[in-house]
Amino acid sequence: MSAPRSNTVMPLGRVLPAWLRAALPGITAAYTLLLVCATHYPRPQEILGAGPGVPSDKTMHVVAYFLLAGLAAATFAARGSWTVSRVAGLAAGLVVFAAVDEATQPFFSRFADRLDWVADCAGVALGIGAVAVVVMAVTRRARDGGERT
User: Where are the alpha helices (DSSP H) in the chain?
Assistant: First the structure.
């Protein structure tokens, strides 16, 4: 007989070490600040360089927002805040954050590009999706009593 389902799933907090649960909000905040500074730096080529070994601009946008969304979603999951409505709110908030991030770049001699925002949104979806897969796996394992099937 299976356990009754609820709106929440087992938080990752039960499987993560206590130090990581405690550190996740700070890591997420620090990464967010780093991302804002990086996306508003007037001459990014000075930091990133140029040439064949440098990923494309869109790839960097996807990866940057994948990491941001993954950290934010992991923070939610570790705190037991993983519900459909809260995760949808997180996704919406990150999409708005990405839009504001793009829209404010011209104030720093950067170019705002709608396709950069689309790449940011793809990163958000992928980051939250990756954490969702982990949450589902942890929840299933806990529900099944830790046994492999």
Answer: 18-40, 44-48, 57-78, 84-104, 114-143
Report the residue count for the chain.
Answer: 149
Q: Which residues contact residue 69 at a Cβ distance below 8 angstroms, ignoring those fewer than 6 apart?
A: 90, 91, 94, 123, 124, 125, 126, 127, 128, 131
The verdict on residue 43 lying in a domain is yes
65-87 pLDDT, tens digit per residue, is 999 999 999 999 998 878 899 99
Flag whether 2 is in a domain.
Answer: no
Only one residue has tokens 């709608």, namely: 114
Q: How far apart are CA 36 and CA 31, in angstroms?
A: 9
Contacts of 106 (CB under 8 A, 6+ apart): 112
Q: Can you give the pLDDT at residue 54?
A: 79
Structural domain that includes position 65: 12-143
Q: Which of 99, 79, 102 is nearest to 71 (CA)?
A: 79
Q: Which residues of the chain have pLDDT under 50?
A: 1-9, 149
Say how many domains are in the chain. Answer: 1
Q: What angle do CA 43, 44, 50 make, to 5 degrees?
A: 110
Give the predicted TM-score (pTM) of the model.
0.85
